[in-house]
Amino acid sequence: MDNSPHYLFLASGVKNGEGFWIVGVKNCDENVLEDKTLLDCHRKELIGYQSAKDILFAIKLNIDNLLNELRNKNYLIESPSMGISFDIPLDVLESIFDFWLDIYKNKVAWETCLGLLKIRKRISLTNLITSDSLKGNSKKWAIKVETLHTYIPNSLKIEKLNDPMWK
User: Fold this and answer.
1) Is residue 109 part of a domain?
2) Residue numbers of the domain that contains 30
3) Using one digit for the tens of pLDDT, what is the confidence trace for 40-78?
4) Which end of the chain is more exposed for a tag (fewer CB within 10 A), N or C?
């Protein structure tokens, strides 16, 4: 596919009474809100198709990392039938969206941050930052990428109950 202009967007929507956020890419000839399940568009950037796909990959990986970490810490996060849970606040998603859109403009910083994000999928970057394993710009970007994963919900944690020893 050519690198024709496309919209990278962040929108809210409702389907069957269930609210969600969605990050996606649409052809610039299509209105983002033509989809009747979408309510409001919070971010919309016109960029080339390949750039939009690259940035969308990073945004989705960042959000997946955040949701997995919250679930691993036993926070109750709803899983809507489509999109991203409303349990993640709009300002958190906007920060993630804006960061990846902005960093894409600097190829070296983009590659560094994307690599850090992929590492972040497996382990927290905090130990690398504090142990001085990272130097210079890598450390600066690692701090920013780690910051994009610091949201903690107000909801209560799910307390895991042990099964009784006998029945």
Assistant:
1) yes
2) 5-147
3) 999 999 999 999 999 999 999 999 999 999 988 888 888
4) C
Integer-rounded Cα Rg, in Å, for the chain is: 18
Strands across the sheet containing 18-27:
18-27, 5-15, 38-48
Residues 20-30 have pLDDT tens digits of 999 999 987 77
**Phi-psi category of residue 13: left, alpha or beta, with phi > 0 → left and psi -120 to 50 → alpha:** beta
Mean pLDDT of 128-151: 90
